[in-house]
Known about the structure:
Elements: H1 6-10, H2 18-32, H3 41-57, H4 60-77, H5 80-84, H6 89-96, H7 101-109, E1 132-138, H8 140-145, E2 147-155, E3 158-166, E4 175-178, E5 194-200, E6 207-209, E7 212-220, H9 221-226, E8 228-232, E9 239-243, E10 252-255, E11 271-278, H10 285-296
Parallel strand pairs: 1-5, 7-11
Antiparallel strand pairs: 2-3, 4-5, 6-7, 8-9, 10-11
Helix pairs in contact: 2-3
Amino acid sequence: MAATEYYKTLGVDKKATPDEIKKAFRKLAVKYHPDRNPGDKAAEDRFKEINEAYAVLSDPQKKEQYDTFGSSGFHRQYSQEDIFRNFDFGNVYKDMGAGGGEDIFSRLFGGAFGRGGGRGGFRAAPQKGADLEMETDVSFRDAAQGAEKLVAFRRNGKREELKVRIPAGVENGSKVRIAGKGGQGGDGGPSGDLYLIIRVLPDPVFTREGGDLFVERAIPFSAACLGTSLDVPTLEGDKRIKVPPGIQPGTKIRLKGCGVKPLGSNYKGDLYVKISVRVPEALNGEQKGLVEELARKGL
């Protein structure tokens, strides 16, 4: 089933109490129950959505994960079987006085709801817990060079903190796996994993493309004509470079091996210094006279 906005499905606010959620579910479940809508495919699909929403919002742990990660993030972590695990169909519909229970769910959702002895119709086999995902901000330099970072997250209803090693060379969108820190396993199964999605913050000096770094430096017109030397930043400190006479604006000077080694690569990139020519916004009298003299000489 596609990602569903569960609160919208049940017609309740995110701040609704468990009793309000249950009341909304019961009303809709009776309205769209297949016994009341025989042969109506639209009603059957609606019935499925209503039960999926209630299976999540009536379970404190699943509800917390849904509220934390949103619909899309939740559905990347929970399969349909995860969603309905421990959802006791028989008792839910027995309390409502509605027919069907496990039999109707076995028909609507398929063989996942067999009569193998587990609560809610699931066979009591060990199940790995759901993998969780969360974004974490990492500075540009820490992403390039690696660092330790303290991350806080909620797992199984509790707040946890953990020191995580951010490997050198990670890029925006990279994932760092933390084994065993995901959702709790079912029926004695292992816990899932936590995946940190790296969000690299912009840097005021460097930009990056793969393993290559880029910086910009502006020089005066006279330096572009005559050549000069510049101190340029690298991740290991400043390096002095020579700018040749007659350099053209936009030219890139390469510093081999001064870039980043991308995660999983054996090769370090380069650093490129992009040269621009600084044109003064105003000239004093002497400067203007000199420039006019240059212009007369064809410069």
